[in-house]
Amino acid sequence: MCFYINIYSISRAYGGPEEGGWWYDVGEFMTCSGPFSKKKALAKAVKENLRLQDQFENSDLSPHQNFFDKIEARVEDHVGRDFPDDKPSYE
């Protein structure tokens, strides 16, 4: 099986007022690399997340521009795509 390293910009979206308000993750697909074996993908994703974290922490963006947003590398068995497909509902 092949694995990909997908880079996402992740933010939070307001789901609704139930139980005092709830939020969910929204991911915007940015870029993909691969395919790789699972072992190689996991190792590369760890390095990529460290690089992204360092870049994010050393950026000159104001704190409120970064409050909810983050950039994250994820190992997945498909080329990346925005998520979620549909807005979740409270249950």
Structural class: alpha+beta
Number of domains: 1
Low-confidence stretches: none
Q: CA-to-CA gap between the ends? A: 35 Å
Number of helices: 1
Report a brief summary of the structure.
The chain is α+β, with helices and mostly antiparallel strands and 91 residues long. The protein has one helix at residues 38-57, and strands at 3-16, 22-36, 70-76.
Give short descriptive properties of this protein:
91 residues; alpha+beta; three-stranded antiparallel β-sheet; 1 helix; globular
Tell me what the structure shows.
With 91 residues, this protein is α+β, with helices and mostly antiparallel strands. It has one domain (3-76). 22% of the residues lie in helices and 40% in strands. It has 1 helix and 3 strands, in the order E-E-H-E. A 3-stranded antiparallel beta sheet has the order 2-1-3. A hairpin with a 5-residue loop joins strand 1 and strand 2 (22-36). It is globular, with a radius of gyration of 15 Å.
Which secondary structure elements does this structure contain, and how are they paired or packed?
Elements: E1 3-16, E2 22-36, H1 38-57, E3 70-76
Antiparallel strand pairs: 1-2, 1-3
